[in-house]
């Protein structure tokens, strides 16, 4: 079975763990220990092929370390998450991107997805969808807006759509 390592980066509180949990366990966790950094495994099927996905849900915002560099080296794909309710978390992603470029061979096309989470918080939105789209254009990567939370609150059809979206974050990389 083909194995892929996906690394989730982003500032604290943007919903990295919630997105990971939704994907791996199909649940929304209102509270998730912000200090937990862990690897989750899930087998996924894409075009009738099975893949073993290893998802690294990173924690902590205090810059990069030798440890982080190791993550980056072993990652096949990266998910950069911000919250649409926080401009700072959007700005923070540039540093993650630069680090990925530095550690990886930049001449390679690194699978990358930019994710704006918490779209259910309509009244608190400060980062416009277009702003995310522009950055994704600049980086030449895919862009998605998600709500890890809404998935648990919507009717079946929409739920399925949302699941497809969340799943897409991961399967797109292949
Ligand atoms: P992490 O630090 O990036 O792993 O963030 P968490 O996944 O722990 O989420 C941080 C907080 O944001 C938690 O209180 C979650 O309940 C909340 N949260 C995560 N995703 C969403 C979302 O899509 N919508 C809303 N409203 N809250 C979310
Ligand atoms: Mg977390």
Can you offer a commentary on this structure?
- With 174 residues, the protein is an alpha/beta fold.
- The chain has a single domain, classed as 3-Layer(aba) Sandwich (Rossmann fold), CATH 3.40.50.300.
- It has five helices and six strands, in the order βαββαβαβαβα.
- The chain has helices spanning 16-25, 66-74, 87-103, 129-139, 156-171; strands spanning 2-9, 38-46, 49-57, 77-83, 112-117, 142-145.
- It has a six-stranded mixed β-sheet with strand order 2-3-1-4-5-6, with helices on both faces.
- β2 (38-46) and β3 form a beta hairpin.
- The chain is globular and about 45 Å long.
- Residues 152-159 have low confidence and may be disordered.
- Bound molecules: guanosine-5'-diphosphate and magnesium ion (MG).
- Guanosine-5'-diphosphate binds next to α1.
Summarize the structure.
With 174 residues, this protein is an alpha/beta fold. It is built from five helices and six strands.
Low-confidence stretches: 152-159
The share of residues in extended strands comes to 15-25%
* CATH fold label: Rossmann fold
CATH architecture: 3-Layer(aba) Sandwich
Helical amount among residues, as a percent range? 25-40%
Oligomer status = single chain
- The domain tally reads 1
Q: Give the N-to-C terminal Cα separation.
A: 13 Å
